[in-house]
Amino acid sequence: MAGSSSGKPNAYTIVGDKIFFGPTPDSAYDYVITYYKKFDALSDAAPTNWLILNAPDVYLYGTLMQAEPFLMNDQRIAVWEKGLRQSIADLQMQDDKDRHSGSELRVMNTSGYF
């Protein structure tokens, strides 16, 4: 059980950037964890990140959208907005495909699938 002092963990919680297992592991165990990481900020020291390498159009159209007030009613704003929305939708669709095997999601109880 999670409240035991030590043993093979069967529960976990995330607090800040740390993962806590319960009960406290009594040995080394291997786990596979899927998680979402915040994108690293761009800087002179780190001029690239995952997003700019894998979906640069999000940065392109987002930047053009942010420049619109300085360009004063540029007629291309609708094109840029459509490009940004499509870029984000494409990225979300790829993430959805990567998360699931393609089969229907099923709820499982302790005795198996419903």
Describe this structure in words.
The structure is a single chain. The chain is of the alpha+beta class and 114 residues long. The chain folds into two domains: 1-35, no CATH class; 39-100, no CATH class. It is built from three helices and six strands, in the order ββββαααββ. It has helices at 50-54, 56-71, 77-99; strands at 6-7, 11-15, 18-22, 24-25, 108-109, 112-113. The strands form three sheets. The protein has a two-stranded parallel ribbon with strand order 1-4. The chain has a two-stranded antiparallel ribbon with strand order 2-3. It has a two-stranded antiparallel sheet with strand order 5-6. α2 runs antiparallel to α3 (77-99). It is elongated, with a radius of gyration of 22 Å.
Write the topology of this structure.
Layout: E1 6-7, E2 11-15, E3 18-22, E4 24-25, H1 50-54, H2 56-71, H3 77-99, E5 108-109, E6 112-113
Parallel strand pairs: 1-4
Antiparallel strand pairs: 2-3, 5-6
